[in-house]
Input
Amino acid sequence: MAVIRMTAYLDNNIIVDIEKETLLISDLNKLTERDITKFYYSMSHIFEANEITASTNTELNERLSKRFKIISQITKNHYLERVLPSNKVVKTKYEPFHIYQSINEVSFARNSMKQMVNNTSEEQKQQFRKQLNIDPIRINNYSPKEVIEQIDANKTAMGGFTLLELIEKGIEMHPAGKNMSLHNRFAGVFEILDLVGFWKDKYNEKSNYARLWDSSHAYFSTFCDYFISDDKRTRNKAKVVFELYDIKTKVISSKGEE
Output
C-alpha cells in the first residue's frame, strides 16, 4: 500500500515561534490525519528575515544565522522557487543563506517589493468602508463563498466590477500586467479584503508591507497540502482567495484550528 506523504508550508509566525522555542516541529507533524513529512519555505521567509534589525552588525549576523538555521532544520532546505519571467514555481533545495545572498546581490529587489505596497491611507479606507455599507463584524463570520458573494453584491461601489473582475482590471491596467501571475493576484485580493474590512489588519506604518508578505506566503502555500499560520487574519483571507481561485490547500493553525 502506497504511503501518502503530506506537505506543508509554514507562515513566518510559525517559524518565529519555533525559533523562540514556544512551538516544536514535532507538534506540527501530528496536526493532520496523515503525518506531514515535508515542509517548504520560499523567498518570502528570506525577505521577512531581511527586516530583522540589531544594534550591531555582529548581532544582526547572529540573528540572521539563527533564523536561517531554524528554516533549514524545519524544511531540510526544501525550497519553492518562483522562476522569472515564466512565474513557474518549482520544488528544489537551497540553503536559506544562498537565497539571502541572491536577494541582496540584486540591489533593487527589496525596494521593488516595497513599491508594490498599497499606499492608500487608513482614513481613505475607513471612508470607503462607510460607503460600501458592509458590517465588518457580520462579514467576518461569513464563509469564504459568502464573503465573495457579499463583495460582488456591492459591485457598484467597486466601479461596477465583481471581486475577480476588479483584480483582472487592475492587472490589465498595470504597466507590467502581462508579466503578472497568481502571486500578484493574491496580493490584490488581500488588499481588497482588507479594504472592505474583512479581518482587516491592525493599522500601523508597516501593516501594508506586512500584508504583502501574508499574501505571498498564502500563494506559495498553494503548492503544498497545508498552509499553517497562527495569524487568524491571514488564515481567513487565505481561505477567501483559495475559494476564489479553487485552491485545495487546507488552512490551519499550529493547534489544528481552521
